[in-house]
């Protein structure tokens, strides 16, 4: 199972979305490039036949489906197999996942288009043109990425199309073989049948089908789905249950060495000196490497016969560090700078309506509400330690790694090793947690650099938990200020929101692609400017402050903290207006029936809280999906306890309800860890937290019961992996206000 970067492409004209049942094939004005056939045929063996760039069929009828997205526990491989199985008319039992060589047809398009800073309610021509241009650019770029909760949304068209096309080719081959009309043939469970009683399996027909002309291609109508929409067992459950699943850290090439690393403890620090001779005589130690790379964190690696030997030697390695210019950096100084920027700068306005300033100072305002909210840096803390195995031998580089960006990882490894990308083979594996951390390729660059010194021997680089926690690319810290105005009847007339943080996108563009980041960054203000609430006068702006702290994409990105800010403040306004939070929100959603339906479903299912507990409500849209959560909370001996969460979600067509429920449960637990405990602090230029003893995550006995309601929808599938995270923190905070009368405006939530 490997991936190699390839180039070249053929054209195929994509048609409609398939919701009406017809796939229209034909040229348009500057049509998008095809996503059916890869630049090179899929590799085959033992009589397999590649039907297109997504599907292979074996003689026994087994269907192998290209897994162009990374499986990191979110169940995406199962969902992608379902798309093909539905249109190909085969049972899930015969469908198998396969890793494929990288190709532009597998590139991410939806995630890039979703990154445009347009309001969801905007249906104007400028937005449509910008999305069209972005999709064209994304297709040409061919960036293969798992992120932005976009995998199913992006695969919905091409993978169903691949299945439908392969099915039509198989039917055409059977019709020709039997000398009958195509229309007289049907398919079911991997078999083509004719009314005369003739039948043939896909395995028998595949070789002839490759050369057949499929004619008109039609995608199934949603009402005809037999697999999509039905809960299916996860195809990765069995190998993960019996231990046969291979994660990046499981790589074991013959003759493998191990590397442990130590990086500058101070942000931006460098190595002043080190004494390799002090540890070279220790048992198993092979060498000590200064893996300096321009633009990377300075560090040292000890290579040894085992990881324990490498780590023991590393701990005893004498190193003197140059702390650099950020030795005085602290959480307090960062937030002081944030406050200063909010005082002095107006920021970039992502959304404006009416005249906020004139309204807030006008005679129609009977009450003004102001508040300031704060969120800390957060680490990813994925369970699988950061790792990468590399072998440079005979001018070829092999990489074994869990990654969300295989193409980028390949390119970076090639650059470090001074090779062409086609000389790098990347072996894909399951990810033991990603959450955005494995969108980064720092571990790949380091492993490639270390492999250059090991004389052809493969070397596995493993970060300790302490290195991971103190050298992450963190969720940005942020500060937000709000001001709202109510009239005498309690109606919300004006809403002003300005926030400040560093920019993830600016840093990633420079760190990964060497591009200068500039201009607005949607991720900084998402969840604030794109809210559905109908407020006559509003302005939502953001100020970007360059961050010396490394920033990265964290599960649900800007929505993760901006939802806390926005949904908590909406509750504040409702309280000031002497209205309950549900009634107040419903009045602001009169023209948003989908949001109302989700909100009402969650509240109705939640019912009334148990005695001594309170309900907190939050509603948030992210990655195209609408989620409402009701958290049932109590305070026990001064500690916050979340007992139950009712979660309603409208994510468009629900491909696999079972996975959607699992992801909502996962998101609640992940989000609660951050809401109750998550905080990375900086002191004297260093990250204070180092392991799970001081960067705590939710324990099993603290996990609430989660009940998920999936709203039936005919809309296209939207994101699932991340949208359940943003509402949980404000839902809990709003419940705590009902219980205690205290409005908690900082994360993590603390009663004292």
TrEMBL record:
Keyword tags: Membrane, Transmembrane, Transmembrane helix
Membrane-spanning intervals of the chain: 12-30
A Pfam family reported for this protein in Swiss-Prot or TrEMBL: MoCoBD_1
Keyword Methyltransferase among UniProt keywords: no
Domain of life assignment: Bacteria
Span of domain Aldehyde oxidase/xanthine dehydrogenase a/b hammerhead: 242-325
PANTHER family assigned: ALDEHYDE DEHYDROGENASE
Protein name: Xanthine dehydrogenase family protein molybdopterin-binding subunit
Biological source species: Undibacterium umbellatum
Source lineage: Bacteria, Pseudomonadati, Pseudomonadota, Betaproteobacteria, Burkholderiales
């Amino acid at each position: 199972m490997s991936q190699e970067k390839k180039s070249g492409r053929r054209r195929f004209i994509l048609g409609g979305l398939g919701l009406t049942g017809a796939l229209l094939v034909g040229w348009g004005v500057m049509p998008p490039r095809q996503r059916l056939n890869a630049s090179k045929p899929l590799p085959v063996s033992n009589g397999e036949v590649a039907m297109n760039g997504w599907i292979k069929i074996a003689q026994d009828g087994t269907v192998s489906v290209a897994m162009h997205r990374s499986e990191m526990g979110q169940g995406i491989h199962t969902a992608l197999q379902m798309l093909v199985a539905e249109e190909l008319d085969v049972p899930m039992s015969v469908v198998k996942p396969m890793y494929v060589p990288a190709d532009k047809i597998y590139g991410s398009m939806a995630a890039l288009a979703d990154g445009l800073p347009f309001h969801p309610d905007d249906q104007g021509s400028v937005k449509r043109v910008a999305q069209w241009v972005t999709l064209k650019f994304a297709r040409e770029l061919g960036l293969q990425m798992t992120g932005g909760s976009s995998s199913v949304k992006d695969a919905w068209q091409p993978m169903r199309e691949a299945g439908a096309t392969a099915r039509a080719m198989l039917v055409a081959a059977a019709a020709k073989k039997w000398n009958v009309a195509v229309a007289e043939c049907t398919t079911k469970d991997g078999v083509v049948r004719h009314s005369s009683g003739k039948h043939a399996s896909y395995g028998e027909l595949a070789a002839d089908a490759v050369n057949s002309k499929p004619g008109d291609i039609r995608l199934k109508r949603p009402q005809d789905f037999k697999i999509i929409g039905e809960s299916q067992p996860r195809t990765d459950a069995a190998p993960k249950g019996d231990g046969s699943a291979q994660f990046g850290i499981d790589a074991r090439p013959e003759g493998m060495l191990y590397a442990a690393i130590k990086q500058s403890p101070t942000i931006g620090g460098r190595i002043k000196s080190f004494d390799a001779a002090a540890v070279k005589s220790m048992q198993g130690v092979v060498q000590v490497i200064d893996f300096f790379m321009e633009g990377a964190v300075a560090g040292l690696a000890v290579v040894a016969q085992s990881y324990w030997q490498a780590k023991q030697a590393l701990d005893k390695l004498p190193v003197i560090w140059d702390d650099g210019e950020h030795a005085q950096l602290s959480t307090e100084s960062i937030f002081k700078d944030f406050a200063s920027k909010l005082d002095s700068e107006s920021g970039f306005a992502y959304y404006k309506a009416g005249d906020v300033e004139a309204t807030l100072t006008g005679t129609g305002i009977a009450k003004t509400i102001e508040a300031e909210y704060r969120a800390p840096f957060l680490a990813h803390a994925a369970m699988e330690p950061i790792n990468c195995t590399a072998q440079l031998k005979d001018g070829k580089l092999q990489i074994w790694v869990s990654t969300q960006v295989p193409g980028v990882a390949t390119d970076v490894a090639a650059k470090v090793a001074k090779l062409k990308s086609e000389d790098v083979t990347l072996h894909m594996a399951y990810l033991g947690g990603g959450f955005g951390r494995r969108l980064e390729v720092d571990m790949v660059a380091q492993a490639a650099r270390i492999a250059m010194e090991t004389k052809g021997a493969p070397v596995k680089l493993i970060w300790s938990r302490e290195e991971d926690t103190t050298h992450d690319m963190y969720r940005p810290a942020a500060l937000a200020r709000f001001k709202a105005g109510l009239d005498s009847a309690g109606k919300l007339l004006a809403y002003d929101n300005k926030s400040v943080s560093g920019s993830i996108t600016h840093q990633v563009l420079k760190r990964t692609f060497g591009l200068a980041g500039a201009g607005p960054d949607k991720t900084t203000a998402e969840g604030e400017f794109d809210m559905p609430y109908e407020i006559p006068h509003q302005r939502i702006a953001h100020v970007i402050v360059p961050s010396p702290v490394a920033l990265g994409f964290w599960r649900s990105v800007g929505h993760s903290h901006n939802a806390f800010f926005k949904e908590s403040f909406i509750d504040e306004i409702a309280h000031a207006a002497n209205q309950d939070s549900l009634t107040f929100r419903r009045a602001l959603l009169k023209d948003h029936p989908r949001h109302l339906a989700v909100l009402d479903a969650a509240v109705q299912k939640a019912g009334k809280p148990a005695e001594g507990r309170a309900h907190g409500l939050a509603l948030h849209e992210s990655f195209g999906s609408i989620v409402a959560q009701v958290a049932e909370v109590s305070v026990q001996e001064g500690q916050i306890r979340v007992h139950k969460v009712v979660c309603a979600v409208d994510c468009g067509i629900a491909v696999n309800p079972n996975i959607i429920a699992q992801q909502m449960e996962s998101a609640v637990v992940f989000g609660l860890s951050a809401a109750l405990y998550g905080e990375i602090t900086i002191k004297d230029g260093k990250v204070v937290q180092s392991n799970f003893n001081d960067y705590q995550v939710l324990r099993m006995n603290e996990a609430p019961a989660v009940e998920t309601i999936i709203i039936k929808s005919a809309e296209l599938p939207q994101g699932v992996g991340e949208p359940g995270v943003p509402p949980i923190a404000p839902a809990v905070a709003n419940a705590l206000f009902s219980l205690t009368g205290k409005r908690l405006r900082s994360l993590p939530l603390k009663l004292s």
